[in-house]
Every structure is written in C-alpha cells, then in structure tokens.
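Internal QA ticket QA-208
Title: Verify multi-chain structure generation after dependency bump
Assignee: T.L.

Test input:
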Amino acid sequence: MSKEIYVIDDNESKEYKYNIEEDTIIYHFSINSSSNVEINLDKEDINLYYYYNNINYDDNSFNIKVNHNKDNTHSEVYNHGVNVSNNYLTYDVEGIVLKTSDKCICNQDNQIINIKNGKSTIKPNLLIDNYDVDSNHAAYIGKFKDEYLFYLMSRGISKKNAYLLLLKGFLINSDSIDLNKIDKFVKEMNKI
Amino acid sequence: MLEIKNLSAKVVDSNINILNKLSLNIKEGEVHAIMGPNGTGKSTLSKVIMGHYSYEVTSGDILLDKESIKSLDTSERAKKGLFLCMQDPTVIEGVSNSEFIRTALNERSLEKVNLYTFIKEIEKSMEEVSLDNSMLHRSLNSGFSGGEKKKNEILQLKCLKPKYIILDEIDSGLDVDSLKVVCKNINNYLKDNKEASVLIITHYPRILEYIKPDYVHILSEGTIKDTGDMSLAKKIEKDGYGGYNE
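Actual output:
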C-alpha cells in the first residue's frame, strides 16, 4: 500500500520539498500556478509516482527535481498541462541519479496541450551518473490530434463533449485519483 | 436509404480527386460489398461518407433518407444512424472504453443512461463478442490486439444500434475464429434490425462467405466499374483485378 498525497495549487506560487522513505503517490493539481518541487528518494527499494496536472491561463512555470539518492529507487513522473491562453508555460523536469545509486529506474512523461497559440516549453533533463540505470523521457507539445476527435465524433459525440472527454482523460490520468479530493480542479476543467 | 450521387472528393489542399463521380444506392436491409485493389479509394469513400477532416467533397452529394448530410459534421452524421467500423481504430489514452460508449449513448437519448442498466447490457454484449469485461475500464483501444480492436468496434455497434453500417476492412488483422465471432454478431444484428443496411469494404471475398452481400461492386480509379452478385466476388478471387485497372 502506497502513501498518497494530494496537493492543489490555485493561483499561487509555491515550493515543495519531499524526503521520501516509503512507496508514495503524489497527485499534484495546479490551477494557474507556478511551483518548484524537490523530491529526495532517501531509502532503497522505494517507488514514487508523481502526477502533475495543470490548467494554465497566465505565464507560469513548473520545476521538478527528483533525486535518486539510494539504490534501486524508482520514479515515474507524469506532467500533463493544458495551456488555455496565448501565454507562456514552462516545464523544467530533472531526474538525477547519483553515481552511488545502482539499479534505479527514472522515467518522465511530459505533455502540454495548447488550446490556442500558447508558448509552451518543456525541458526534460535526465542527469545520470551511473551505468546501471533504466531511464526514459518523453515530451509532447501540441493540440489534441484530429484523429482523436474524429473517432469520438464518429460515434455521435459532439465536438464539445469530445473535447471534454479528451481533457478529462488527459488531466485526470490515473484511475486511482479520488475525484472528491479535487473538486475545485474538476470544476475548473469543466470551464475550459 | 443511403444515396451517393455523382460523388467526387479529394484530399484537402490537393487538386486530385480520389473519388470520381461515384454513385451508389443502398436500400434498407441491403448488404453491399465494395471490392478493389489498394489505392482505388475504398477507405476514402468510407471516410468521406463519415465527414472525415482530411477530405473535401468537390461535387455530388450524400443523402440519408433523402436528406443531404454533406453539410453535417461527423457527430451529426453518426446521430443520423451512420456507423463506421474502422480499419485501424484509434487508441486514446485516458478515455475509458465505458466512459466513451456511455457518453455516446447519453448524447443519443433524452435521459441519462442508467449506470446499472448500462453495465448489465454492455457486459452481455461483451460476452457475445468474446471480449473480457476488464476491457470496459481500459483506455480506448489501448493495448488491445488487432482482433480485440475489431471486436470493440462491433461492441460499439451493438450498443449504438446504427441504421447504416460501413465495415472498412473489418477482416484485416482478424484470425479465422475472431472473424467468425465478428461476422456472427453482425449477422445477428441484421436479423434483429431488419431496416439496417451494410456496406462492406474489402480486398478479399473471404468475409463475404460469412456476411452474404446482395450486391458486389468493383471500385477502380475512384468510381464503380462493375456491379454484380456473389459470383463477381468469386470471379475476382479467381482472376484478380487486372481487368479493371485500365
């Protein structure tokens, strides 16, 4: 059983530091906010799942640094953002594996959907100083693919509801998220 | 009735028509098959009927029950009863199969679909198409095998109950057993829905052994070059498309 942490930022700028010594899932929901996150994986054989989901209207940034300080630590970081207006949104995502940390898994998946012509940037960084590491990163900035909308609409779903389905699937990207705990975020999502 | 009248269509931003003055009438309860070699416009026809964003109708019309659907978007066409079983169904991460089908059902009915009734009915349909219940809660077509994707299309068909069904190479990527399951479900659907009609798009006559067509058409160079019955499909199997390529 993993420890679960829910965080919601609403129009604010915040800093978070976690020193993790047990399996942990962090659900971080952000409404038009900037944040800096530092995570230290401080015990061997632990798993971290970090879900960052972000609705953005103004110029904002999200910086996250995951330090693999011990052997056999595992991080999966999923950063999903929707950039609603013609503004700047920057993700700076660092996974760091020390020379002394063997057999780590360090993965990150970053995606920003521009609703209009937002200026979005993703900087995926993997700083690996060890030869025995499994590490991947992915980054996508763009719109929802036309083929997604076509498929949904081909079953009679209106364009508006097709967008809503895609937004929900994108921003609430884990089955285990308790919607009651992110009511404010869900309401904001329905306004897009 | 689905009427295609002198339909010409091209890829958006190109000047070359892929469909050239194609005409076809499909009456209620009829099963039509369109056969043809690669690159003759078979899949294009299915997408143009459905209002795909990549294609533009340059002339002609498409009518459902005597009403033009040319100006309708894809969703409105589907609500009129059109259903395209896709050759390669799209994978959409994050959107669950159940939420997708339920949203589609909700858009078609005045009242919200009752969750309990929905689950009961869809579980029965999933059993009929030999899909595991767990697939209902997975992301749409994500991690599905080729056969499972096609069965999932048939599951949607059974739930949404369309009047005009287009099967775009439904047999591709299916093993013999899966093909039998898919075709059995389509035949049962046609038995239960006498007014439903089908347009089968295929390279090979094999699927026509399972779903018997009333008419077989040969498509070449974007238009229908020949029409016949099942014997035409058998002739193609024996002689190939060579005679239609000029």
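Spot checks passed. Residues 8 and 182 of chain A are 7 Å apart (CA to CA).
Status: verified.
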